[in-house]
Sequence to fold (323 residues):
Amino acid sequence: MAANSNSSPTTIATIRPKPRPVSSSSWPRKYLHWAFFVGTPTAVKYVPMAEANKIPLVGLFTGAQTLYTPLRHWVVNVRASYFDETREQIDGLWNTLGDKKIAVIYPEDPFGAAVLDRVKAALKTHDAEPIAMASYQRQTAQVGAAIDTVRAAHPDAVVVVGPPNTVAPILKQAHAKGWKPLFLTVSFVGTDELISEAGADAEGMVITQVVPPYYLTDLKTVALYRRTLQRYAPAEQPNFVSLEGFIDAMVLVESLKRAGKDLTREGLIHGIESIHDLDVGLGPQLKLNYSPKSHKGFDHVIPTVVRGGRAVPFTDWSTAIPK
Fold:
């Protein structure tokens, strides 16, 4: 999404995934900001354009490390990074479960490379590396070879990277072969869609989240999200992904308020950087923090495990022991 600099802050124009080539010279200049782009490949394409044109880019649905380090003045992240997620996974496996033989199955695309790199970084803190790695072609269910390659290394746990339409076949095919290590994945998978597509094969999978479960309506912002969804999109089911988008929008609105009446791109960035330890109604561990030295709003990760067709949060990693 992008807001037109000639309009009020509430005016929103939709940007399609492939609006125009990066070489376009004039069209980006009319926007006050861009927001809510989805995926690492999208980020890799549009971040250079945002930086070249000095356009704030807010609330990307990806945790790729390139968005976080080095600091990018025009890029504003709300969610925790993939490194935060994979570090939570690796530390839980290593320190609590004693699982030290960890493998990775990942797609051959920037998203797969980003998560693989962060798994390697998390393992490096334990002076280790993946026991096995195998890739598969992006957006396909042709994952048998990758499964066989990783299975041959006899890992304790496997981090599976991809969207639900590829992670679900990996779970199904692995289980059909009688192979049931502890499988883990990151939040981008789209938890609810994965559970729907994988069915019983999703049971026991660990999925790290960057927002609380959408059914915890004792949290003020989760309750507001549910009321808003019911009012404006009653046919839609609540889920982790749309809750994250709702929170991203709240952060953007707060930033616009702080930017002042005479909105400018730099003013919007200053507004965001003025947010410190802000309670946004998501609990004490998810307070929003920005500064001129950090454009990462949250760093907290919530591990969940699929039990009975629902992602259940936990703090004790022994909860994730396969049943």
Notes: Residues 1-24 have pLDDT under 50 and may be disordered.
